[in-house]
Amino acid sequence: MSHFANFIAGEPVGANHTTANVNPSDTNDVIGDFSSGTKADVAEAIAAAKQAFPAWSRTTPQERHDILKRAADEVLARKEELGRILSREEGKTLAEGVGEAGRAGQVLSFFAGETLRLNGEMMGSVRPGVGIEVTREPVGVVGLITPWNFPIAIPAWKLAPALAYGNTVVIKPADLVPHSAWALVDILQRAGLPKGVLNLVMGKGSVVGAAMLAHPDIAAISFTGSVATGRLVAAACVASTPMKKVQLEMGGKNPLVVLDDADLKVAVDCAVNGAFFSTGQRCTASSRLIVTDTVHDAFVAALVERMKGLIVDDALKAGTHIGPVVDQKQLEQDEHYIRIARDEGARLIWGGERLNRQTPGFYLQPALFTETTNAMRISREEVFGPIANVIRVKTYDEALHVANDTDFGLSAGICTTSLKYASHFRRNVEAGMVMVNLPTAGVDYHVPFGGRKGSSYGPREQGAYAREFYTTVKTAYIAAG
């Protein structure tokens, strides 16, 4: 069996304990043993990053550009291989895995360019003979904690800006899916990063993540994961001495509104893609389908017909539409919410059953509930599985009210042929990202990603907006003569 070590100060570092990385499409397939880091490993990684920071933060934009561009080119050249690695360990279909690997390469390429576009301001003072220069500088050693559902794209869109703007990094990927992040770090190391600039410590959040949060030499933490853990991360960053800069992405309960005038085929396509692709394991998934009364029955009937044709199978098998749930724990959580919804009076109109396939895996038939209200737990809490519920409303105004009646605010969508309603929804829905006649999931790599309320905290990720987190602003006054 292959063994994968941590990367600290540019060298592989083994561990006394390892974690087996298991294929959710075939639990007999163990991908490899991955080192489980300790508090001491974290301290060593942070020390290496701290030592590397002064020199790396003063490299030229061209040096950082060239390294990121070489890494981007290798990721894009190997996207088929990296996509297979991803799909094998996470369970999303091979097409989705290859697409995500390609996205990681595009992110690296974008931020290679951003190294050359970082600028400042010169302005005059209200005092004669005084000039003002406003510049951006790297924040220091940055800790990155990434989730299991996008195991190469999210590490890429955190790592790329962190490095582009001159920070050094300690990254902890989700312990369920370490191989994709390991491969990405390996590529960046070989692209020419100096020793200590990028350090990888794998293992449990309760050990590695906690040690990162407690260490005084980490200046900033970027975290993607659950709301509960995100709150703990924020509290720890504020309580630390010195205080840490913090960025959180924590999920969603995203509405897709379907109005009477919607193109039915477009609406069903948006619902299937948003609710069930990637096994529903996306923070931008369309888990609440809010449908006006006149079109409700036709929409549900058409959606069920589409669901009947979805093939749930091995993620690497040709023709698979939906792969397995990521692991046994997540499968049990999905089934738990199916029982809750039924107990609350929701009608399970299709799916929700465990499936047996040629290989042992965590296969779940996509589930659709009707006769639900926005007060039910199935409408309030993020399930993170291939489960959606339909909420019947009478009018657009009621649909907008229901869409906004949530503790989350990441993504929201509307299907309509009315410019009036599309424009009003875009302005008045309480979400960080809005989609009109498109799935709620799917955001380009060069635009800001993030939400409101309980979905996000701190500056946006991705695109040029990433500089708000990964740099700090300095204002300097210069007196003439």
UniProtKB/TrEMBL annotation:
Active-site residues from the entry: E249
Highest taxon of the lineage: Bacteria
An example molecular function term from Gene Ontology annotations: oxidoreductase activity, acting on the aldehyde or oxo group of donors, NAD or NADP as acceptor
PROSITE patterns per record: ALDEHYDE_DEHYDR_CYS, ALDEHYDE_DEHYDR_GLU
InterPro entries: Ald_DH/histidinol_DH (IPR016161), Ald_DH_C (IPR016163), Ald_DH_CS_CYS (IPR016160), Ald_DH_CS_GLU (IPR029510), Ald_DH_N (IPR016162), Aldehyde_DH_dom (IPR015590)
Family matches, as Gene3D superfamilies: Aldehyde Dehydrogenase, Chain A, domain 1, Aldehyde Dehydrogenase, Chain A, domain 2
Stretches assigned to the Aldehyde dehydrogenase domain: 17-475
Name recorded for this polypeptide: Aldehyde dehydrogenase
Family: Belongs to the aldehyde dehydrogenase family.
Pfam families on file: Aldedh
Keyword annotations: Oxidation, Oxidoreductase
